[in-house]
Amino acid sequence: MHSAQNIVEARNVSLTFETNDGPVQALSNVDLAVRRGEFVSFIGPSGCGKTTLLRLVADLEQPTAGELRVGGLSPEEARKARTYGYVFQAPGLFPWRTIEKNIALPLEIMGYSAEEQKRRIASTLELVNLSGFARKFPWQLSGGMQQRASIARALSFDADLLLMDEPFGALDEIVRDHLNEQLLELWARTSKTICFVTHSIPEAVYLSTLIVVMSPRPGRVTDIIESPLPQERRPLDIRESPEFLEIAHRVREGLRAGHSDE
Amino acid sequence: MTASAPIAAPGSASATTGAVLRRLSEGNTLPVLIVVTAIVAIWYGFTIYLNAPWQIDTYQRTGAEWTAADLVRDTMAQERPVLPAPHQVVAEIWKTVVDVRPTSNRSLLKHAWITLSSTLLGFAIGTALGILIAVGIVHNRAMDKSVMPWVIASQTIPILAIAPMIIVVLNAVGISGLLPKALISTYLSFFPVVVGMVKGFKSPEAIQIDLMRTYNASGPQTFWKLRWPSALPYLFTSMKVAVAISLVGAIVGELPTGAVAGLGARLLAGSYYGQTVQIWAALFMAAALAAVLVALVGLVQRLVMHRMGAKP
pTM here? Predict the structure, then answer.
C-alpha cells in the first residue's frame, strides 16, 4: 500500500475519545489512500468523524490505533515539515492584522525574508482575487472575502496539501457557488492535493475527483467514489448533467445506508 | 453684497446659538452640567444643615442677635466646619495650588507630586508583576493551581493592616523613601492586572491556537503573535482599575508612616487639627489626579487600539 504517489495513507485508523460518559468512538478502522494531485471530499452527517479525520491528518488529534502517513511521514513529522495548509470553518483571521499581514503570518513564523514575503503575499492575493484589499482590516471585508483571505493564508507558504474543513459552510449559496468555481480553478492552476470536508452533496460531487462517504456512530468510511466527471473544466451547470446526478444519487444512497444501520 | 450683510448677520448669529444648543443637547456636556449643579446644590444644603448647630450654639454663647440670612452666611464661612462649603474648598485649592510656590511645603501641588510619583512607580511595578504572574499562570499548570489562590487571598487582607508592616519591615532592611510606599501601590495594583491578563492570554479562539500549531509555531511565536495582541484590550481595562487603586495605595501608604508630605499626610494632618477644609481640598486633588490618570490610560488605549485596526 505504501506508495510515493499517495500523499495521505490511512490504515485501520481509529480514534476513541475518553469522556465523562465513557469512551466515544469517533473513528473506526478507516482505510484510505489519497493520490497526489487529487481533490478529495469527505462527506457525511455531523458526528461521522469527517472533521476528526482531517484533524488527524493535520496532527491536531492523534489516532488511538492504526497507522497514518502524510507525504510518507508521520502526521507529526509532516506538520513540523509544514507539509500542509489548513483552512478552518471560520476564517480565523487576526483582527489586529491587515489582510496582507494575516497572509504574512505563516511566512513570518517560517522565517521567509521580507522580499519573499512581499512577493508571496502579492501572488496569493491575486490567486484568490483580493489584490485590492491588502491594506484592509478583516472587519472591512465580507464573510466570503474573509474566507478567501484565509485560503490565501493557507496557500502562501506553498504546501503540497491543502486541508479544508467546511470552509464555505457559513456562506450563502450564491457566494458558495462562486467560491467553489474559483477553488477548482485554483486547484487546476496549482496542482495541489486538496482534502475537503463538506456536508453538501452537490458541493462534494461538483468539486471532487474522489468522494469519501462517511457515516456516524462510530465514524467510518462507507463508500469511496471515483468521479467520472472531467477533471479539467467543470462549468457550474455540469450539476444538471446525468453523470452528475448519477454520482449525487450514489452519494445519497451511501449516506442513507449509513443511517439505516442504527 | 454690502446691503445683504446687516440682514445676514443676525441670521448667522442665531444659527451659531442653535448649533451650540444642539451640541449641548446631543453631547455629554449638558447631562454632566445638570448632575454637577445638582450635586453642588445638595452640598450647599448639607453645609447649612450640618454646620448650623455649632453656629447657633456660638450665637447663644455670645448672646448675638441673628437672622436666618446671618445663619446661612455664617455656616458657609466657618474656620473648621463639619462640612465646608464648595467655594471654601475651591478657595483652599486655589490658595494652595496657585498662590503658593510649588516647592513650598504648603503647596498642594508638591504633595500631589509626591503621591503621584509613588503611585506611578507602584503602578509600573504592579503592572509588570501582574503580567509576569499571568504569563506563568497561563503557561504552567502547576502555577495555575498553586499561585492563583494566593493572588486572591492577598487581596482579602486589609491594606490598612499590612501597609505599616511593609513599611516597618523594609525600613529594617534599609529600604526607605519612595519604594516602600510604591510597593503598597504594587500590592493593590498587580491584582486586576493578573486577573485581566489571565483572561486575555486565554482569549484566542481554539482555531487560532490550532492555526499556530499547523504552522509549527514555537511557544514564543505563539505568545508574541497571538496571545499578547489578543490580551491587549484586557490589559488596558485592567490598567484603568490598577492606576486608580495605585493612587489609593500610595495615599494609604502615607497614613501609618508619619509621612510629612503627600496627599495622605495632608489628610492625616488635616484630621489631627480639625482642618476639614484642608482635608476636602486634598480629597479633591486626589480625585482629580485619579481622573487624569485613568483618562491618560484611556487615551493610550484608544491610540493603540486604533493602530491595531479596531473598528472606529
Answer: 0.83
